[in-house]
UniProtKB/TrEMBL annotation:
Belongs to the AB hydrolase superfamily. MetX family. Pathway: Amino-acid biosynthesis; L-methionine biosynthesis via de novo pathway; O-succinyl-L-homoserine from L-homoserine: step 1/1. The lineage of its organism: Bacteria, Pseudomonadati, Pseudomonadota, Gammaproteobacteria, Pseudomonadales. The active site is at S157, D323, H356. This is Homoserine O-succinyltransferase. Substrate binds at R227, D357. It holds the Pfam family Abhydrolase_1. Transmembrane segments: none annotated. It comes from the Bacteria. Keywords: Acyltransferase, Amino-acid biosynthesis, Cytoplasm, Methionine biosynthesis, Transferase. It comes from Pseudomonas aestuarii. Residues 51-338 form the AB hydrolase-1 domain.
């Protein structure tokens, strides 16, 4: 590793691509005839192939979870605070795999990929994805990498839902499930926020029914609004108050509707602008729908304990006190169901002011607990 990188960094990493030719049946009734998954690995797979950890990303995440793609990259991967030598997911002990899910816009087959049937981008013709579909595709990736059983599947938010689905769909292929800032299904309020974000995109004049790429445009305004709405829900009221308060951009008010007067307005517009330049609108629609559809207990008349009756993995569930998007009460639903199903589970509710985004932030108590659990399972 180059000395230009921090000592606890995985250093320079190169994304890899795997092509799959076997059709993948999907929950929506369609299938993907062939597809590719982009992923990164950190650390080494041991001789027994027993130290592999899968990282599942959240709504706007991707495969680049740790390290750097070049010496000039300003920021490391999105979960670099938790992955690397001596970090909670210690790459001296674990072989870590992080991928971009199907339907994504960071290299894996998705709406912006070319549809072999038409030679044009899939756009709105790309099939709807579910968390279960992703897990099935991830199982094929595991097969290709020689991983018969994960030491752990780990994820926050939507990633935590994938980790839970792994324990349900492939109970013999996962020893530990870490679901962080997650939920067994979305609340009506969460679905409502997702619908507002989707409507912002769908009603953008430059969305063109999802086929905007063919016209050489993007629904920038819709994407910006979707991100702004979403970002508000990722932060707590206290976090926003502490960061911005009612701070002004200048010393006086302009008394009009168009000026960016408050610091928080400037922040949200920046977040929207940055996001609209790097994320695909159809992928955003797809990811939010996957969130909405996740409800594994629906097959058991809403009985989550019965849903989890067949899992073999030990669980670690973590939540954050000020997370109102995926509140601690939702994590306790998972814990209570696991206890009712007589499964091994540990639970930690971390006092943190940052809201839902806390799972991405190196909070000392969080990192300590995370490290303690992962140290227990290292082989």
């Amino acid at each position: 590793m180059s000395t230009a990188f921090p000592q606890d960094s995985v250093g320079l990493v190169t994304p890899q691509v795997l092509h799959f030719a076997d059709p993948l049946p999907l929950a929506c009734g369609r299938s993907l005839a062939d597809y590719q998954l982009v992923y990164e690995t950190y650390g080494e797979l041991n001789a027994a192939c027993s130290n592999a950890v899968l990282i599942c990303h959240a709504l706007s995440g991707h495969h680049h979870a740790a390290g750097y793609h070049s010496a000039d990259e300003r920021k490391p991967g999105w979960w670099d605070s938790c992955i690397g030598p001596g970090k909670p997911i210690d790459t001296n002990k674990f072989f870590v795999v992080s991928l971009n899910n199907l339907g994504g816009c960071n290299g894996s087959t998705g709406p912006s990929s070319l549809n072999p049937a038409t030679g044009k981008p899939f756009g709105a013709d790309f099939p709807v994805m579910t968390v279960e579909d992703w897990v099935h595709s991830q199982a094929r990736l595991a097969d290709a990498l020689g991983v018969g059983q994960w030491a752990a599947v780990v994820g926050g938010s939507l990633g935590g839902m994938q980790a839970m689905q792994w324990a349900i769909s492939y109970p013999e292929r996962i020893r530990h499930c870490l679901a962080i800032a997650s939920a067994p299904k979305l609340s009506a309020q969460n679905i409502a926020f997702n619908e507002v974000a989707r409507q912002a995109i769908l009603t953008d004049p430059e969305f063109y029914g999802g086929h905007f790429q063919e016209r050489g445009v993007i629904p920038k305004r819709g994407l910006m609004l979707a991100r702004m709405v979403g970002h508000i829900t990722y932060l707590s009221d206290d976090a926003m108050g502490e960061k911005f308060g009612r701070g002004l951009k200048s010393e006086k008010l302009n008394y009009d509707f168009h000026s960016v007067e408050f610091q928080v307005e400037s922040y949200l517009r920046y977040q929207g602008e940055e996001f609209s330049g790097r994320f695909d609108a159809n992928t955003y629609l797809l990811m939010t729908k996957a969130l909405d559809y996740f409800d594994p207990a629906a097959a058991f008349d809403g009985n989550l304990a019965q849903t989890l009756a067949g899992v073999q993995a030990d669980f670690c569930v973590m939540s954050f006190t000020t997370d109102w998007r995926f509140s601690p009460a939702r994590s306790r639903e998972i814990v209570d169901a696991l206890i009712a199903a007589r499964k091994n589970v540990c639970y930690l509710e971390i006092d943190a002011p940052q809201g839902h985004d806390a799972f991405l932030i190196p909070i000392p108590r969080y990192l300590q607990a995370f490290s303690s659990y992962m140290n227990r399972i290292a082989i």
